[in-house]
Write a structure and sequence with these properties.
By secondary structure, this protein is mainly α. The protein has 2 domains: 68 residues; 30 residues. It contains 2 helices and no strands. The longest helix is centred in the middle third of the chain and has 67 residues. It starts with a helix and ends with a helix. Pfam families: DUF6825. InterPro entries: PG18-like. It comes from Trichocoleus desertorum GB2-A4. This is Thylakoid lumen protein.
């Protein structure tokens, strides 16, 4: 027969070793899952960033195409200063308002 103290010692030691192995296994799995999660999140962020940049580029191209196709510039002429163009447009608006006022007053 064996001594109960010696038996308890070996049972305790086996229990500690088994718990240590289980803890090591659980910790390894948790760190592995954390690494996978981190990699997936980085990939999602990269894809999201790519989508945003692609959309911004498409919209920029659309705006630039629309801007160049709707510009009122006679062929063969150089674009004028922006402030000068604004001033000319304001003058045209003032002239049209004046003509509209004259038309309204004559039709009453």
């Amino acid at each position: 027969m064996s001594n109960p103290l010696v038996h308890a010692f070996f049972v305790g030691r086996a229990l500690a070793e088994t718990l240590g192995e289980q803890l090591e296994h659980s910790l390894t799995n948790a760190l592995s899952e954390l690494g996978k999660f981190d990699a997936e999140q980085r990939e999602h962020l990269r894809q999201f960033t790519e989508q945003v940049l692609e959309r911004a580029q498409r919209e920029e191209e659309i705006v630039m195409r629309a801007r160049t196709t709707t510009a009122i510039v006679p062929q063969g002429s150089q674009p004028t200063d922006l402030q000068a163009t604004i001033d000319e447009l304001r003058a045209e608006i003032a002239q049209l308002r004046s003509e509209l006022k004259t038309y309204r007053s004559s039709s009453v």
